[in-house]
């Protein structure tokens, strides 16, 4: 999505407004930052079809809001997301091939939507992230994790295959770490997850909100929405290309980026020792 070439409308990041609350996903904004909270605390925010649908809808709404510059994904209660719930597992066991494929595609589309969002998406992992819940965190651009959280993919321990997340995890971690996580099916603590590259940063529980807020504000204030969207597009496509194809694509993208409004305005601002428009718009 390249519709973010124009700087966002001026808005104070300290001006908080509540936008919408659904039963399954709470959505709020603070200036240019949108926060989505998985809201099944009694089920440890375990994923089911309804929650996936609600989250996809909330992401689409955020994507269509030109005033937004970053998305934070987190959970209510003590867990980020404990994967699939018991009722979903029972339904999966009883469903036929077509139903299971439809359900799997539903989750794959959610992961793709997060991975390919034009905005940076930050996972604020406030507690355990297991199975599909860990997949949610791993497809975000950044994952800040509470120090006491456990993360991992336990699918092989119940005879299941972590097929969808494998596609993204292989790109993120490489083969060695992906095999370690997926074949053993164990949980790792937050520090080990950071060492493996599964998450970006481990933060003490009491400091998590402040750390994520600071990152979101930095992204909203310091970076061009157009440039971030184009960079994310390249990050998604380049790993599947050969060297010559990737370099040709990079040349085309480099030339295209030079003609965008944000690049022109950013160069002018740099030459005139001024703030670029997106930074000016974030004052307040």
Helix and strand run = EEEHEHHEEHEEHHEHEHHHHH
Structural class: alpha/beta
Number of strands: 10
| Fourth-tier CATH superfamily name of the largest domain | 2-enoyl-CoA Hydratase, Chain A, domain 1
For the record, the count of structural domains works out to 2
Spell out the blueprint of helices and strands.
Elements: E1 16-21, E2 25-30, E3 33-38, H1 49-63, E4 70-75, H2 86-94, H3 97-115, E5 121-125, E6 129-130, H4 132-139, E7 142-146, E8 150-152, H5 163-173, H6 175-184, E9 187-189, H7 190-196, E10 201-203, H8 208-222, H9 225-237, H10 243-258, H11 261-271, H12 277-281
Helix pairs in contact: 1-3, 4-5, 5-6
Short recap of the structure:
The chain contains twelve helices and ten strands. By secondary structure, the protein is of the alpha/beta class.
What does this molecule look like?
The chain is α/β, with parallel strands linked by helices and 284 residues long. 49% of the residues lie in helices and 16% in strands. The protein is built from twelve helices and ten strands. It has helices at 49-63, 86-94, 97-115, 132-139, 163-173, 175-184, 190-196, 208-222, 225-237, 243-258, 261-271, 277-281, and strands at residues 16-21, 25-30, 33-38, 70-75, 121-125, 129-130, 142-146, 150-152, 187-189, 201-203. The strands form two sheets. A seven-stranded mixed beta sheet has the order 1-2-3-4-5-7-10, with helices on both faces. The chain is globular and about 65 Å long. Residues 5-21 have low confidence and may be disordered.
